[in-house]
Write a structure and sequence with these properties.
single chain; 226 residues; alpha+beta; 7-stranded antiparallel sheet; 9 helices; 42% helix
């Protein structure tokens, strides 16, 4: 299904006009200070457990792990061989990509973007993160960009299949409160998108694919200072 078709289906299901959207995950929520946790009502900080069907699927996948590891090793070996046989122009391109990856990683480390959020539990992002799994115990969120802001949808409880069928709106963030941001403005191909709140705090989500529909949408938006 095309992005336009997916947006139309999502709009009809949730009754929300969608500009762009992707299923996203967040990293492991760090343990908040005891006073912060207590003040928030001791919310859950982890997704729900896999249901029996999902656990059975995970068990069935175990015998295939050695095969997956072998395929990964073969893929790495193939990449090394291709590099050794590459033409001068191809080697230059690969070196350029390696330089970009190192530069991207340096920026991520420098700006602390390897964390789930900016680290301030009293900021808007930290307070929203504390309620993340209270809204839904599912491990993913459908992050939707709309004309009025950001909408997050998910099944109320964690499911193994049929996430679209069971999803409902679990949070709304008006444009005056938060915006979606590609921290690299399209310079690097990543899965990272930030939900940046009006107080400057931020929460990092990861799309399922790099250069996702959300990234493409954000590239079309005017720069903040334009």
């Amino acid at each position: 299904m095309t992005s336009r078709g997916k947006h139309r289906e999502t709009t009809q299901r949730l009754d929300v006009p969608v500009e762009a959207g992707e299923w996203c995950t967040i990293g492991k929520i760090p343990q908040p200070p005891a006073d912060v946790l207590q003040a928030a009502g001791n919310p859950r900080l982890r997704p729900g457990r896999l249901r029996p069907l999902g656990m059975a699927g995970a068990v069935l996948a175990v015998p295939f792990m050695p095969l997956l590891m072998l395929l990964t090793l073969l893929s790495n070996a193939e990449g090394a061989i291709k590099r050794s046989l590459a033409t001068k122009d191809e080697k230059e391109r690969l070196r350029g990509k390696d330089d970009d990856d190192r530069r991207r990683d340096a920026i991520i480390a420098e700006q602390g973007l390897d964390r789930v959020f900016d680290g301030n539990w009293h900021g808007d992002a930290g307070q929203f993160l504390l309620r993340w799994y209270s809204h839904s115990t599912h491990h993913q969120r459908l992050v939707l960009a709309t004309q009025d802001g950001i909408v997050l949808a998910a099944p109320p409880q964690r499911v193994t299949v049929g996430r679209e069928k069971h999803m409902q709106i679990v949070a709304r963030l008006p444009a005056a409160e938060a915006t979606l941001v590609d921290p690299f403005s399209g310079e690097f191909e990543t899965r990272m998108v930030l939900i940046r709140f009006r107080d400057g705090s931020w929460l990092r989500v990861e799309t399922e694919e790099p250069r996702s529909d959300l990234h493409t949408y954000l590239l079309r938006q005017p720069l903040p200072d334009s």
